Amino acid sequence: MLRIYGSARSRTVRTLWMAQELGLAYEHIDVAPGSPDLRAPGFKALNPNGRIPAIEDDGFALSESMAINLYLAKKHGGGLYPSDPKNEARAWQWSFWTVDRLDRQLVIHANHAFVLPEAQRNAAMAETTWAEIVPALDVLETALARSPWLAGAAFTVADLNVAAAMYRGLFMDLGNWPHVRDWLSRCWDRPAGKAARALRE
Question: In what order do the strands lie in the sheet with 2-5?
């Protein structure tokens, strides 16, 4: 039995989306970031970092959302994990790239631009992170202008991982990056994407 640990309002939504795409039966243990449950010995045995998401798959423990999704996609097939080695490498490339270039930056920017109550926002922080986001969106726009998907001719784990990390982009003006905007909508408009959003929102 697959168990997915973490709140849908966290990066765990990425793994919940993947499970929905694959049609997997799973148990969702809803644990919030910062919860004391994450410091309990049972959870620390799954993830010594005490962070979510984490999974337990028939006794196999794994953490880090990108690694979890790559593992599940490869294990269960269904076309989400590229069979061609070059597209497989692209799936790794885009998954690692988004962690470095967009994931944290989008969270911080969104928090200080529109998520947090106005009194808690830091305009300088929003501006600084936006300056990092723009060149990353330019790179993604160039890639999606060449191909509608990131790792081959169809939607794969590469698209899911990057689009999931860009959740907050759904609420931003991406008019300067039309290919990114349209691709992001295509990804989240998938039935499994809609199901994941419903869990989060």
Answer: 26-29, 2-5, 54-57, 60-63
Domain ranges (residues) in the chain? 2-76, 85-200
Distance of CA 87 to the CA centre of its chain: 19
In contact, 57 and 44? CB cutoff 8 Å:
no
Instruction: Tell me the CATH number for domain 85-200.
Output: 1.20.1050.10
Check if the beta carbon of residue 163 is closer than 8 Å to that of residue 186: no
Whether domain 2-76 has CATH 3.30.420.10? no
In terms of pTM, does the model score above 0.85? Answer: yes
pLDDT tens-digit map of 80-135: 999 999 999 999 999 999 999 999 999 999 989 888 898 999 999 999 999 999 99
Low-confidence ranges of the chain (pLDDT < 50): none
87's CB contacts (< 8 A; 6+ apart) are 151, 152, 156, 158
